[in-house]
User: Fold this.
Amino acid sequence: MDLILSDIHANLHALRVVLKYARGRRIERFIFLGDLVGYGANPNEVLDEVRALPNTWIIRGNHDRACAFEDGDPYFSLPARLAAAWTRVHLQPDHQAFLKALPSNALKVDEDFVIAHGTPGDEDAYLLQARDALHAFDAFEGPLCFFGHTHLPGLFELDEAGGSLAFHPLRSGEWRSLKQGCRYLINPGSVGQPRDRDPRLSFLAYDRRRRRVKLLRLDYDFGAAAAAIRAAGLHVSLADRLAIGI
Ligand code: ZN
Assistant:
């Protein structure tokens, strides 16, 4: 089984719950879809944990880019821009070098699937609607792409033979089988800053042999993560949003 993790955003409290889940289970690969840092108060500790894991596949997200490079994102909102500047100042140099060296969109993990941050064609694009998904399906080969960036979990299923494209929400704790002959774009949601009005952290288990995925929503101490954001002097909106999942 692989774990698919996206948008941790320097939220150590959330990441530790995921790593606790992973302990004692046979996890073959840890796959990260970008935005390890940015917004949250613990970028160094998150990178310590991520870099210590075995069998990782990691691509950068737009926040990793903005936290690694001075001119990484001129289009950020004010809280995001301030958080990126704060992270650049506080990141240990070796972690900053690690972020700079991360591969950008998109990465082929094996014959079965690719990973992307925004979409396979554009790390900054938000894949929200069916028409976005149609473009995204054109930008990769093969049956499956995991993507992040929107922080919204769910699955687009393209049946080319049947001529249909559908979005399906995913229910926590339920396996969903991937159909032979269909292609998929699947978002695991966000570990560190969920935005679907459910504050529980979100990630995905992928069972390659049985071709199925399971969304996992777990409780974590978002109050402690918010307190760390306030104590660091980051924008207060970044703390407040964690309790309501926006
Ligand atoms: Zn993000």
Remarks:
- The two ends are 29 Å apart (CA to CA).
- The CA atoms of residues 114 and 228 lie 34 Å apart.
- Residues 78-90 form the longest helix (13 residues).
- The chain has a mean pLDDT of 96.
